[in-house]
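Task 17 of the worksheet. Students: predict the tertiary structure of the chain below and write it out as structure tokens. Keep your answer in the requested format; marks are given for formatting as well as content.
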Amino acid sequence: KGSYFPGIDVIPTDLSLNNADYYLSANIQSDAELLNRLRDGIRSVWHAYDVIVLDPPPALGLLSLSVMNAANCLAIPIKPTVVDFSSTSKFLKMCEDNISELIRRGIPPYYHFDTFVVNNMNDSKSAHKEITTAMQKMFAGADMISAMMKDSAEIDNAAKEMKTVYDLTEPMTT
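Model answer:
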């Protein structure tokens, strides 16, 4: 479906996608091609787009494995908090395990790049600045996008109303 920006289409998700992991788990043994369906679907429309962004849930089940199989690059958002930063190493280990599983199944992924992006950055919090600096050192160079997604009360408020910030006609905060 169209979006608020010309040339950008969005396929929103909802809770019905929650059952996808259960379906994949129940049927993957009898139909190994299930992991290729998303990839094949994207390949059927990729010529119409410069970029296709997939935003799977943060769980690394078969749905995420399917997304990793369909992707040609990875952008991993990290909140600049101690908990999120420290859990990133565990997340990366799970990604490595998923990639190994794809290779084992004979469908090795190829990524043009993989990168990290800081999200929910609040410049007024010293801890956010310090953790972001540590991440920039750890993921130096091309591994980390220099632009950051800022924290915004408007995003939280719009989400509370089940809207995007583009659906708002006026600010909800004062």
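Marker's comment: The first helix runs from residue 20 to 27. The longest strand covers residues 73-78.
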